[in-house]
Amino acid sequence: MVMKVLVTGAAGFIGFHTANQLLARGDEVVGLDNFNDYYDVSLKEARSALLDPYKKFRMVRLNLEDREAIEKLFKAEKFDKVVHLAAQAGVRYSIENPHSYISSNIVGTLHILEGCRHHGVEHLVYASSSSVYGANTTMPFSIHQNVDHPLALYGATKKANELMAHTYSNLYDLPTTGLRFFTVYGPYGRPDMALFMFTRNIIEGKPIDVFNYGNHRRDFTYVDDIVEGVVRTMDHTAKPNEKWDAAQPDPGTSRAPYRLYNIGNQQPVELMRYIEVIEDCIGRKAEKNLLPMQPGDVPDTYADTEDLAKDVGYQPSTPIETGVRRFVDWYLDYYKIDLRKRA
Asked: Among the options 154, 188, 274, 331, which is catalytic?
């Protein structure tokens, strides 16, 4: 059945790929984005331009914080489902610019929840983050663990989004599902992410900053695998856990129609290995500037995705060698770079 879906952050990295897949299968998509200048706006415009040819797509340029405009949008469009991916991203940026995270991630999400509540949305799927695990060290990270110790405001706002969603599921019977993303990468990725910065600097012959002296491990997850999980989750409306026990509360489920899932690759990769793969794809070694760990960062991430696999059949299949190659090929094509001329 064809659905009408609101995708917030549709000019962003994951939002663009999600909107593209929904459109490709025949759904009607309204994209929402404010095209802010947190990073190169031309990249957001390029993503949006690839969606424009679809007859069942239109982009709405709005700020999530604009309460009246969001209310009007929901009232006019009558969405079946909402995929809320818009947010102020970045762990380190949240240390320098905390107010933007409260405005976008807290206030903006409230407006989306209110829109869903008042206009009969069947299911809200929203972006959380592996950052909510914060000081946790038990690996792999599980949605059944307590996550009360975030290490940066970005993670705290994502944890707050999960709590806000639960209250709406409980009070208004609104099905909500939060997806904790683990280090997403791929074509049209964000310029503030490691893969983009490493690729650019290696090509330009500049050193790369390698934090924690390269001792990080990350559950790098290719964007196509992420989007497959997002769409499958959207189609699988959250339901109450009838076995939920208030005496032993499970953080990942509820007696309300509320679910949380990790969405990662389940194969953490050492950062130095990741850099080696980038070097192999470019055909050039990186000059590494080894630095201590940054404030708010965590040494390792590793997703337990068993619940998502069991409930929606999620099975990531892209090895980093393939995913990084696709990104580097995209980067060279997008920026019109001929490596032979830079040899």
From this structure: 154
